[in-house]
Design a protein that fits this description.
Elements (H helix, E strand, L loop, with lengths): L1 E9 L3 H19 L2 E6 L4 H7 L5 H8 L3 E6 L14 H11 L4 E7 L12 H4 L3 E7 L7 E7 L6 E5 L4 H16 L4 E6 L5 H14 L6 E6 H10 L6 E4 L1 H12 L9 E5 L6 E4 L16 H14 L3 H17 L16 H14 L3
Parallel strand pairs: 1-2, 1-3, 3-12, 5-10, 8-9, 8-10
Antiparallel strand pairs: 4-5, 4-11, 6-7, 11-12
This protein binds 3-isopropylmalic acid and magnesium ion.
Length: 361
């Protein structure tokens, strides 16, 4: 197979974890006889520095012309004071919107070997295996008006939360489709006791559900969901929710796995190439120190192979390698227990490559 991939390392630890993921991908390409051609492009703070634009046109062009996109992370204190339009995060949000990356899949799987790495009791997180399906191009992230008005104590800031029936329907369908190939259970998370947009969301879920009689579903209020994720995380199969609820719940859910550094994601497009990125941020405090956990990005590559290129076997082999590395006890600082050796980004990457060699087909 011959494919082109747009690579957007971004800021902070982005370049390090993406570098790791590409080394792993190269190894897989060699083992399975594929050719992946990379085109690098800037996004976020580094793009502001180079082009005075967090999402330069040439980056968008590169993405549109590729078969898939790998992204690291954006942002950092250096750019925090910039005007809203120049912020690194704006580049990522614009990329999501422009490429219509409406469906963000965030699988949360607890590895047996990491049961002790989570702050929760092992018996509670054993068997956790669910996926958060987060709407990614609507809601309060993009609603208009978004502005500041007035002065002094009357100064006012406005964000707007809007959803169209179409936007809700396509993400909810994605949730039901995924449930069909999983354990057949959808939990739709909203705030229908308060928000009008959530009441429309519920209506749409009811309608869509009728098309999937083989899938059971329920509605759950977001505050309750935040609690249930800790109380009985193994209960969930597919969690489908709007943009900001999904943002918050997925960071919470990552701690079930032991570290924010473990969660991969896929942002599926309605029209073109999809994007694969870790859910964590740019971690400026450890950038450039070879300490970051590369596994979220490496696992995002497994999602890419599976969802974008249909390479199920390759994805499976990579997931197996990641699992074997964790079992071998080689762990970055975020996962290592007190007094335990802390492996570097490069060491963990080497270990994944070594494991891939072992499971050579
Ligand atoms: C995420 C991140 C982004 C978001 C930020 C960086 C804009 O937190 O992908 O979860 O809020 O969506
Ligand atoms: Mg987030």
């Amino acid at each position: 197979m011959k494919k082109t991939i747009a690579v957007l390392p971004g800021d902070g630890i982005g370049p390090e974890v993406v570098g790791s993921a590409l080394r792993v991908l190269d190894q897989l390409a060699e083992q399975f006889n594929h050719q992946f051609d990379y085109t690098f492009a800037d996004i976020g703070g580094c793009a502001v520095d180079q082009h005075e634009n967090p999402l330069p046109d040439q980056t968008l062009d590169v993405c549109r012309q590729s078969d898939a996109i790998i992204l690291g992370a954006v942002g950092g204190p250096k750019w925090d004071q910039l005007a809203p339009e120049m912020r690194p995060e704006k580049g990522l949000l614009k990329l999501r919107k422009e490429l219509q990356l409406f469906a963000n899949l965030r699988p949360v799987t607890c590895f047996e070997s990491l049961l002790d790495a989570s702050p929760l009791k092992p018996e509670r997180i054993k068997g956790v295996d669910f996926i958060i399906v987060r709407e990614l191009t609507g809601g309060i992230y993009f609603g208009e008006p978004r502005e500041r008005r007035g002065v002094g104590s009357d100064e006012l800031a406005i964000d707007t939360l809007t959803y169209t029936r179409h936007e809700i329907e396509r993400i909810v369908r994605k949730g039901f489709e995924l449930a069909q190939v999983r354990r057949g259970k959808v939990t739709s998370v909203d705030k229908a006791n308060v928000l009008e947009s959530s009441r429309l969301w519920r209506e749409v879920v009811e309608q869509v559900a009728a098309d999937y009689p083989d899938v059971s579903y329920e509605h759950m209020l977001v505050d309750n969901a935040a609690m249930q994720l800790i109380r009985q995380p193994a209960y969930f199969d597919v969690v489908v929710t709007e943009n900001m609820f999904g943002d918050i719940l997925s960071d919470e859910a990552s701690m079930l796995t032991g570290s924010l550094g473990m969660l991969p994601s896929a942002s599926l497009s309605a029209v073109g190439p999809s994007l694969y990125e870790p859910i964590h941020g740019s971690a400026p405090d450890i950038a450039g120190t070879n300490k970051a956990n590369p596994l979220a990005t490496i696992s995002s590559v497994a999602m890419l192979l599976k969802y974008e290129f249909g390479l199920e076997e390759e994805a499976g082999v990579l997931e197996e390698a990641v699992s074997a590395v964790l079992e071998s006890g080689v762990r970055t600082a975020d996962l290592a227990k007190e007094g335990e050796a802390q492996a570097s980004t490069d060491e963990v990457t080497d270990e994944v490559i070594k494991q891939l060699n072992h499971i050579r087909v």
